[in-house]
């Protein structure tokens, strides 16, 4: 047998692609401490933290409006499966975090969808999970968007951006009153 035949089988690595956008990124350069050039390995048992405190956060956002620790991402294995995923937790006491249309308050956490938009303040982050098999580590690959992610992807971050029907009445009005819309015959009007 050759050394090629005896070599260990390479396993694929889960990679979390994160694309960052802020409308003032050109002037304020809040992403200057992020490395957009290469993939980075993160140990599976480490928590990836994002915020402005460089002594705690590996991913630093240089903006005084960002919390010391804004949010964290934890890699985990799903129960009774061989699948892996990420959990996102809002660590900011002042700023709510939105994942697609789910709003997270302080210390709230949810599973990160395989493709989603994370928003807080004016920040927009497109997160895309590329599945892998490695149990020891995962990788992050950071990207910088030149245009707003919400407009590009047409995935609203805020529930207030829902379409309103032609009659001008939003279905959420009925839901907030505990009533559901009813159909009325034209002749009954």
Automatic annotation (TrEMBL):
Listed name of the protein: TRAF-interacting protein with FHA domain-containing protein A
Any GO CC annotation of this UniProt entry: cytoplasm
CDD domains xref list: FHA_TIFA (cd22714)
Ranges where the FHA domain occurs: 49-121
Taxonomy, superkingdom: Eukaryota
UniProt family annotation: Belongs to the TIFA family.
InterPro entries: FHA_dom (IPR000253), SMAD_FHA_dom_sf (IPR008984), TIFA (IPR033621)
Keyword annotations from UniProtKB, A to Z: Cytoplasm, Immunity, Innate immunity
Coarse class of the protein's main subcellular location: cytoplasm
Coiled coil segments of this chain: none
Species annotation: Elachura formosa
Localization in the cell: Cytoplasm
Name of the gene this protein is made from: Tifa
GO BP annotation list: innate immune response; positive regulation of canonical NF-kappaB signal transduction
